[in-house]
Amino acid sequence: MPETDHVVRHLMIQGLVQGVAFRASARAEAERLGLCGWVRNRADGSVEAVVAGSAGAVEHFVRWAHRGPSQARVDRIAVSPAARPEQTGFLMLPTL
């Protein structure tokens, strides 16, 4: 993919986002969209993710994250630019 079409975003997702399969659903959505990056729970009850790929696919993921899986209730998302992840694929990382 052309470098100009490649974007990386860091997401901090708050609400009822743990215990509702948010991480597994995020990984499935990212893989469906061909994104790389990672997702993890945080000790404060939020979910954190970094997604990298084409601008359109990343934007689609961000829109999905505003809803999340059916059992989730997303109250707030902070989205910011991020550094490109070193790995390929999409990982579920341990809680931080």
From TrEMBL:
Cross-referenced PANTHER family: ACYLPHOSPHATASE
The species this protein was found in: Aromatoleum tolulyticum
Active site positions, chain numbering: 23, 41
A Pfam cross-reference name: Acylphosphatase
Protein family: Belongs to the acylphosphatase family.
PROSITE patterns: ACYLPHOSPHATASE_1, ACYLPHOSPHATASE_2, ACYLPHOSPHATASE_3
Residues covered by the Acylphosphatase-like domain: 8-94
Source domain of life: Bacteria
Catalytic activity line of the entry: an acyl phosphate + H2O = a carboxylate + phosphate + H(+)
UniProt-recorded name of the protein: Acylphosphatase
Oxidoreductase recorded as keyword: no
EC number, UniProt record: 3.6.1.7
SUPFAM superfamilies reported for this sequence: Acylphosphatase/BLUF domain-like (SSF54975)
One MF annotation (Gene Ontology) recorded for this entry: acylphosphatase activity
InterPro entries for the chain: Acylphosphatase (IPR020456), Acylphosphatase-like_dom (IPR001792), Acylphosphatase-like_dom_sf (IPR036046), Acylphosphatase_CS (IPR017968)
Keyword annotations from UniProtKB, A to Z: Hydrolase
TM spans (from-to): none
